[in-house]
């Protein structure tokens, strides 16, 4: 028999749960165009590919394209009569998400329940609820020098979109964020102040990926009336952590992408899962090498 290699793949989501998806798998020699292996099959978690042609230690490009998750493409080395192992975690493809499994209102952190009514929370659509939970997780984990968190200083929710929220904030939050070593100054110019308010300052955490930005607006009449425009920037986090293949056309930040970056980059889980359509029927694959 000609020399052959084996590749043991472990495919999961960012929480390390089984992928449980139908995926197209392709292995190409680096710089080549003729596939060593190509198939589409249902993968629960482990995928063992045997009999891969390998006459010497060779670099290959492995591409995995699931139905529910973003594609990934990585380089691997295969050698004859050797077993290579690789674990790949896949961020969700937001276009495949049909809803979220969110915590019940009673199980939310008290600091979040304090600013959001149960009826309002229950009425939120999936993306708005995901945005709220993302920001609550990050703001609730961002400690200030006075021993409180950013979330503790929010008073009531004024507005929410899929990529940000605006809430009344205590004057202490403005002071604490401005003095905190976790934050650095940021440009407030992309954040339009609500009617009756003016831009005051803007700061973002120093996280490389998934940073929290707070832009403060002060009532034009002065006093202690402050608003905070809060968002999380996933920036290039998906590309960095997952080597994903992503369309260059971007719209507003998708909260489902933010969730994946928070979990992968910072170990912060906003506490909700995704709902999908049923996967395609199981299909077997074949080695074409």
What is the strand and helix layout of this fold?
Elements: E1 4-13, E2 21-29, E3 37-43, E4 46-53, E5 58-66, E6 72-78, E7 83-90, E8 99-101, H1 110-113, H2 118-123, H3 126-141, E9 154-160, E10 165-169, H4 171-179, E11 183-185, E12 197-205, E13 211-219, E14 226-233, H5 237-242, H6 255-266, E15 273-275
Parallel strand pairs: 1-7
Antiparallel strand pairs: 1-4, 2-3, 2-5, 5-6, 8-15, 9-10, 10-14, 11-12, 12-13, 13-14
Helix pairs in contact: 3-6
Description:
The chain is of the alpha+beta class and 289 residues long. It has two domains: 4-91, Immunoglobulin-like (Sandwich), CATH 2.60.40.10; 103-271, no CATH class. Helix content is 18%, strand content 36%. It is built from six helices and 15 strands. The strands form four sheets. A six-stranded antiparallel sheet has the order 9-10-14-13-12-11. Strands 3-2-5-6 form a four-stranded antiparallel sheet, with no helix packed on it. Helix 3 runs parallel beside helix 6. The radius of gyration is 23 Å and the shape is elongated.
Radius of gyration: 23 Å
* Integer count of domains: 2
Q: Which strands sit side by side, in order, in the main sheet?
A: 9-10-14-13-12-11
Q: What is the N-to-C succession of helices and strands?
A: EEEEEEEEHHHEEHEEEEHHE
Name the helicity range.
10-25%
Mean pLDDT: 91
* Discrete helix count: 6
How many strands? 15
Percent strand equals: 35-45%
């Amino acid at each position: 028999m000609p020399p052959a290699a084996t590749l043991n793949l472990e495919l999961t989501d960012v929480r390390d749960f089984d992928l449980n998806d139908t995926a197209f798998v392709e292995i190409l020699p680096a710089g080549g165009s003729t596939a060593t292996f190509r198939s589409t099959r249902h993968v629960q978690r482990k995928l063992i590919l045997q009999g891969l042609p390998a006459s010497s230690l060779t670099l290959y490009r492995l591409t995995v394209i699931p139905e529910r998750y973003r594609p990934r493409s990585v380089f691997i080395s295969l050698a004859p009569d050797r077993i290579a192992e690789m674990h790949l975690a896949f961020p969700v493809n937001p276009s495949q998400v049909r809803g979220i499994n969110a915590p019940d209102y009673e199980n939310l952190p008290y600091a979040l329940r304090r600013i959001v009514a149960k009826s309002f929370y229950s009425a939120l659509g999936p993306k708005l609820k995901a945005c709220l939970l993302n920001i609550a997780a990050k703001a609730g984990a961002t400690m200030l020098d006075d021993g409180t968190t950013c979330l503790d200083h929010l008073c009531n929710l004024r507005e929410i979109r899929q990529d940000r929220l605006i809430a009344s904030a205590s004057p202490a939050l403005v002071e604490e964020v401005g003095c905190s070593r976790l934050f650095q100054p940021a440009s407030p110019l992309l954040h339009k102040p609500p009617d009756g308010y003016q831009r005051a300052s803007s700061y973002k955490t120093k996280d490389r990926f998934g940073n929290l930005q707070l832009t403060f607006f002060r009532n034009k009449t002065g006093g202690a009336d402050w608003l905070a425009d809060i968002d999380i920037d996933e920036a290039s986090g998906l590309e960095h952590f997952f080597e994903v293949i992503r369309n260059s056309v971007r719209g507003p930040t998708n909260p489902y992408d933010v969730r994946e970056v928070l979990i992968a980059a910072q170990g912060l889980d906003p506490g909700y899962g995704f709902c999908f359509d049923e996967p395609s029927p199981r299909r077997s694959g074949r080695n074409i090498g």
